[in-house]
Amino acid sequence: MTNTIKAIFFIVLGYIITGCSSSTLPPATLHQSNTVDVASYKYLIGAGDVVNIFVWRNPEVSGTFIVRPDGMITTSLVEDIPVSGKTPTELARSIEEILATYLRDPVVTVTVNNFVGPFSEQIRVIGEAAEPQSINYTQHMTLLDVMIRVGGLTEFANGNGAVLVRVENGQQQQYDIFIEDLIKNGEINANVDVLPGDIIVIPETWF
């Protein structure tokens, strides 16, 4: 490319960039989990899960399927069955309804492997955790369990300035949590229950 052509190219590129208008995207929607307390928790299937579908007396339509990123699976008889966000039992009943078109009185059992779950059910830890990440929720999981999974705090963390963000009745609620008291000072009263969809934000210490 000659110098003249390069010059023309960058001039045109400049017009394109300056001529394009930009706008701010709206904030992401934080979906409320179906679990409102520890006792009501039921595992929901999500993208990446492996579901085992057993159709009684019909092994040819039974099988193991990976839930696609769009939350669906394709079986031997039916394409694009939505499964994300359903419990294994709910999925089994849905598949029975679908298969009733082809089979007489189908009986279906669904089990799950891998356990990824939908994003709305994962706990997210951001900020000054040793290993910030999303964690699959397990029933009766507590703040201490979460901190063990993320490797504790960094040396720069303000653990007692951390907050837990939770969506309740469609509204974001923010709760103070005292991680440093819990994991460094051993104050077990600082341990609290976490729920699917919680976000834990750990700020940096201001020296």
Report the uncertain regions.
9-13
Q: What's the CATH architecture of the largest domain?
A: Roll
Tell me the domain tally.
2
Number of helices: 4
How much is the average pLDDT?
A: 90
Distance between the termini: 53 Å
Helix content: 10-25%
State the name of the first-level CATH class of the largest domain.
Alpha Beta
Biggest β-sheet strands, sense, barrel: 5 strands, mixed
Strand content: 15-25%
Assembly state (oligomeric): single chain
Structural class: alpha+beta
CATH superfamily of the largest domain: Outer membrane lipoprotein wza domain like
Please give the radius of gyration in angstroms: 24 Å
Biggest sheet strand line-up: 7-6-10-8-9
Q: H/E order of the elements? A: HEEEEHEEEHEEHE
How is the topology of this model organized?
Blueprint: H1 3-19, E1 50-55, E2 63-66, E3 72-73, E4 81-82, H2 88-99, E5 108-113, E6 122-127, E7 133-136, H3 143-149, E8 163-168, E9 171-176, H4 179-183, E10 199-202
Parallel strand pairs: 6-10
Antiparallel strand pairs: 1-2, 1-5, 3-4, 6-7, 8-9, 8-10
